[in-house]
Amino acid sequence: MSFEPVSVSVLTGFLGAGKTTILNRLLKEPAMSDTAVIINEFGDVSIDHLLVEQATDGVIELADGCLCCTVRGELVDTLADLMDRMQTGRIGNLRRVIIETTGLADPVPVLQSLMAHPALFQAYRLDGVVTVVDAVNGSATLDAHEQAVKQVAVADRLLLSKTDIAESAIALRERLEQINPGALVYTTDAELLAPIITGCGLYDPETKTADVKRWLGEAHDDHHHSHAHGDHDHGSHHHHTHDDRISSISLRHDDPLPFSALETFLDLLRNVHGDALLRLKGIVEIAERPAQPLVIHAVQKVFHPPAWLPQWPDETRGTRLVVIGIDLSEDHVRRLFAAVTNQPGVDQPDRAATQDNPLAIAGL
Description:
By secondary structure, the protein is α/β, with parallel strands linked by helices. The protein has helices at residues 19-27, 75-87, 107-116, 120-123, 138-144, 146-153, 170-179, 194-197, 212-215, 241-244, 259-273, 330-341, 351-354; strands at 6-13, 35-39, 51-54, 59-62, 67-70, 96-100, 124-134, 157-161, 184-187, 203-204, 209-210, 246-253, 277-284, 294-299, 302-303, 307-308, 319-326.
């Protein structure tokens, strides 16, 4: 029996942001049938859903067929166990999995688990990361905790909680948009949360099409992507030292790119800036196969196996990459990209000197 890859959403946010309240609302929405929610400990997350059966091995079946399970050991083991239960008929087929991280957790290792494990990346498809931010205490949390800033930086969508009791969320919204200009910001005032927390990925299984513009965060004005956050000229934000370490860099190239050039750029980026790289997303027109766009996605040094889309989803071709990093040199990343794409106006390295040593392009 074959299975479609199960969509996985990661729900993160700092301590006290309100993830439990969101999960309780989410599990009551009709769209969340055939969903498994992975949480850390049932005792830590009070699911006020009507429980109809507590199965063995830490799996709880809810009244509408949803499942809740705890992380037993490694997350990889829990996901593998869920897939085994589906394939052996012990549970019905799942459409999606939602992973709720601890408030102190770095979501990057969760993403790496999905991308790096050979069995998991075939069984599951990462949909996206949704970070919950407390509208009352969010600014103070971002000031005090670098981890909270990283949670915002890697998100595909941001969800503001407690806006009903916050005096104003305007300044916080502006700050979030500067940390992560590609993420859309929502509030928990929305009637339904499922459309916000799911459907973040490139591929929309409902329409059977790819939404590149949304996935790359290009729904915002282009000027949001024209610079690293540290270059923003907003004096009121310069004291946010954690924020200033985050960069969101958009790279574009209009012509088809030889696969070898893309490979060189990704290798250099991983080798030179891997520790600073939080996320990379992109779609590339490859010279050897221009009719089909190549999708690339990476978290730090872990790259998801590249995937070919059957066709271009819109009239825009070329290469569009979004690089998000911490303490990442935007100038250096842009020079690497310009070197491998032969862009004019940039000092080019001696190509003969770099054939045997690609790192020479990086000036190393």
